[in-house]
């Protein structure tokens, strides 16, 4: 699974995707930004059908794959665990095989289990796109974050992205590491020691460097962008238990006071959903001058248009 990469028909992860391939995808996505804003449509995928299998809750990813498919002229079938025969005991793999038998042109899948998209990709002939699998990867989120930064910065040389939060349980952090470091950005991972293992420094494709720290105030002066992440309580233990440490906001929250200490050009990001007043204050998340959170959402449609086009037209 660690070798998962973009192959001819599949986008299973950003791990192993070379810089030139990332740049080609980002270039293609950039060409779809006007369409993502609703200003253009296309019939590139007219008559094609995309299956969205979302076995874990989603707002942004699920809706933006649908919007992206529609803007390309494709239609979608949407399936969740509830209301499908998964609730009668049918397996995810059998579900995917049935969709393939209906002739869908691509399968987009989100699952709480790491490796589900790979399992499906090994069994079906149509393209498979990972829309987030457990703690493993969320490649289109990584690409949309990187596109958002590239649209602001042009390139990544000399840039540092501070990612703060529950890194250990974050597929978003992993996909950003696999995507940002080959493009030359340095990444600083910050959070409580239990949520930011030192082993994450090994997740780099270079030339960008990865470092780990546990003091946000020490890390912030290096930041060109700060990406705040939610604590993923649903991935803390078998029963989804656990709780947010009582001093979490004080130590790791991007509060109004902390944001005020940053130079005005430092960007603020969050993949959503946001726990306002925990990892980021509302005033910071909604700051029209430095928050690019809604740009991330718009660029998600552009990235997913590029990925669907590439997958289906291959
Ligand atoms: N960023 C993200 O994956 O959001 P959703 O869970 O709403 O899709």
Characterize the main sheet.
5 strands, parallel
Which sequence of strands runs across the widest sheet? Answer: 7-6-5-8-9
Number of domains: 2
Specify the CATH homologous superfamily of the largest domain. Answer: Aspartate/ornithine carbamoyltransferase
- What is the ordering of alpha helices and beta strands? HHEHEHEHEHEHEEHEHHEHH
Distance between the termini: 23 Å
Helices, by number, come to 12
Mean pLDDT: 93
CATH architecture of the largest domain: 3-Layer(aba) Sandwich
Task: Provide the list of bound ligands, each named once.
Answer: phosphoric acid mono(formamide)ester
Question: How helical, in percent, are the residues?
Answer: 25-40%
What characteristic shape results from the CA principal axes?
Answer: globular
DSSP summary, beta strand count: 9
CATH topology of the largest domain: Rossmann fold
Characterize the structure shown.
With 314 residues, this protein is an alpha/beta fold. It folds into two domains: 19-138 and 297-313, Aspartate/ornithine carbamoyltransferase (Rossmann fold, 3-Layer(aba) Sandwich); 140-291, Aspartate/ornithine carbamoyltransferase (Rossmann fold, 3-Layer(aba) Sandwich). Helix content is 35%, strand content 14%. The chain is built from twelve helices and nine strands. The strands form two sheets. A five-stranded parallel beta sheet has the order 7-6-5-8-9. It has a four-stranded parallel beta sheet with strand order 2-1-3-4, with helices on both faces. Helix 7 links the parallel strand 5 (160-164) and strand 6. Helix 1 packs across helix 6 (139-153), helix 1 (19-30) crosses helix 12 and helix 6 (139-153) crosses helix 7. The longest helix is centred in the last third of the chain and has 21 residues, at 293-313. It is globular and about 55 Å long. The chain starts with 18 loop residues before the first helix and ends with a helix. The model is unreliable at 1-8 (pLDDT under 50). Phosphoric acid mono(formamide)ester binds next to helix 3.
């Amino acid at each position: 699974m660690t070798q998962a990469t973009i192959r001819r028909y599949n986008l299973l992860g950003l791990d192993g995707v070379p810089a030139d391939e990332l740049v080609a995808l980002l270039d293609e996505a950039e060409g779809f930004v006007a369409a993502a804003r609703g200003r253009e449509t296309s019939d590139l995928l007219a008559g094609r059908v995309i299956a969205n299998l979302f076995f874990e809750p989603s707002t942004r990813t699920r809706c933006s794959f649908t919007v992206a498919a529609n803007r390309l002229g494709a239609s979608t079938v949407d399936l969740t665990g509830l209301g499908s025969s998964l609730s009668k005991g049918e397996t995810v793999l059998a579900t995917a095989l049935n969709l393939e038998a209906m002739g869908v042109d691509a399968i987009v899948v989100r699952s709480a289990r790491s490796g589900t998209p790979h399992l499906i990709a090994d069994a079906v002939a149509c393209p498979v796109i990972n829309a987030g699998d457990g703690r493993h990867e969320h490649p289109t989120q990584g690409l949309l974050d990187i596109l958002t930064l590239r649209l602001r910065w042009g390139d990544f040389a000399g840039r540092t992205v501070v990612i703060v939060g529950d890194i250990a349980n974050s597929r978003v952090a992993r996909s950003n590491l696999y995507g940002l470091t080959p493009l030359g950005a340095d990444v600083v991972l910050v959070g409580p020691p239990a949520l930011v293992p030192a082993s994450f420094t090994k997740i780099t494709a270079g030339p960008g460097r990865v470092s780990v720290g546990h003091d946000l105030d020490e890390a912030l002066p290096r930041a060109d962008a700060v990406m705040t992440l939610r604590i993923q309580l649903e991935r803390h233990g078998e029963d989804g238990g656990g709780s947010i440490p009582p001093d979490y906001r004080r130590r790791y929250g991007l509060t109004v006071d902390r944001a005020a200490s940053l130079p005005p050009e430092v960007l603020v990001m969050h993949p959503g959903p946001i726990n306002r007043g925990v990892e980021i204050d509302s005033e910071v998340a909604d700051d029209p001058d430095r928050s690019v959170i809604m740009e991330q959402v718009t660029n998600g449609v552009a990235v997913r248009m590029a990925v669907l086009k590439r997958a289906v037209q291959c």
